[in-house]
Amino acid sequence: MRDLKAWFVREVLPLEADLVQYLRHHNRHRGDLGDLRQEVYLRAFESAQTQIPQSTRPFVFAIARNILVDRFRRERIIPIDPSLDLDAIDIPTDEPGPDRSTIARSEF
Questions:
Q1: CA 107 – CA 71 distance, rounded (Å)
Q2: Interatomic CA distance for residues 3 and 52, integer angstroms
Q3: Taking a C-beta distance cutoff of 8 angstroms, is the pair 48, 7 a contact?
Q4: Most buried by CB count within 10 Å: which residue of 47, 63, 77, 93?
Q5: pLDDT (tens digit per residue) in 27-74
């Protein structure tokens, strides 16, 4: 654990300026840069617990890219409003409408 902390301080933290610049350039939401940076640090630290990577810079920036991609995907998902009245939405069905039923009865 001591080696991991030393690696983090020696290899990861000096990348902060470049990491923040990367996140600022590729992120739509400027307000959450600090949160993104912390998430990158957390994932890097947790991932390095099993094995410290040989190339720290590509490792850290791959984590940052993956986090941004995950967030972008989540933003594209349209949430369903639980207060929405689903019965009020006109959803087409395979059942004939009332006009078709009336016509069918008259023809019969």
A1: 57
A2: 9
A3: yes
A4: 63
A5: 877 778 889 999 999 999 999 999 999 999 999 999 999 999 998 888
- In angstroms, the CA 75 to CA 57 distance is 27
Residue type present at position 107 = E
Residues contacting 53, CB < 8 A, separation 6+: 47, 59
pTM above 0.70, yes or no: no
Q: How far is Cα 84 from Cα 105, in angstroms, rounded to an integer?
A: 36
DSSP 84-99: S-GGGS----SS--HH
Q: Report helix, strand and coil shares of the chain as percent, to nearest 5.
A: 70, 0, 30
Helix pair 16-26, 56-76: axis angle to 10 deg: 30
DSSP 81: P
Phi, psi dihedrals of residue 84, rounded to the nearest 5°? -70, 130
How far is residue 68's CA from residue 58's CA, in Å, rounded to a whole number?
15
